[in-house]
Amino acid sequence: xxxxxxxxxxxxxxxxxxxxxxxxxxxxxxxxxxxxxxxxxxxxxxxxxxxxxxxxxxxxxxxxxxxxxxxxxxxxxxxxxxxxxxxxxxxxxxxxxxxxxxxxxxxxxxxxxxxxxxxxxxxxxxxxxxxxxxxxxxxxxxxxxxxxxxxxxxxxxxxxxxxxxxxxxxxxxxxxxxxxxxxxxxxxxxxxxxxxxxxxxxxxxxxxxxxxxxxxxxxxxxxxxxxxxxxxxxxxxxxxxxxxxxxxxxxxxxxxxxxxxxxxxxxxxxxxxxxxxxxxxxxxxxx
Length: 287
Hints:
With 287 residues, the protein is an all-alpha fold.
């Protein structure tokens, strides 16, 4: 993802520069940046980012699904299920991944453009603020829906739209709508990512001071050192923990759809999970 971000930045900046008729020597541009060009560039960035992220999600879902139903095929780190699931993600399920990712990318691009317009202070800031909030809410809803739909895609190989319908119907028929809205795994993982980011940011700041790397504007240099460390730690940890988040979602989907297989293949884990869920949600959980 870091490589894609760097590649996109190197490509996007000259594109906007040229289409705006900018002159490096004069330090001015003949025209304002073309809104359509900027929008398409943002869509390309977010779309590719989402495709990479969701490909990992679908791959993890496929591996966990194999472990759930046929544990002998996913019994080790180098098991065949990993390669098979990754192959399915890049072939049979890739169209579904691209479709779901495109929807999020378009909304995310609109959020970014509206935010930039609001921050530029060109007028209508109240309406732009409302529009940004509504678009951000729509984005969060779509991402939440996608997280479950892509889990179903990875486990069962359905198309994106069919998977979304099936997984929501599954939770509704089980009476688990409260359970899936109440599960806090993603919040905990996000908090861990922020915590690691703060630690790496502070560590970066300490290293910059102890090695005499803070010079010139001390406050600005310190802030830059902390920001670089924080961003690096946050991005790397979020990427790593996204595997855990995908695995947790897959376990929930499989437990709703096939508890009997779990009891047969993993009896000890099944008993522990049954006891824990029955204690947490006694009314909704009735297995």
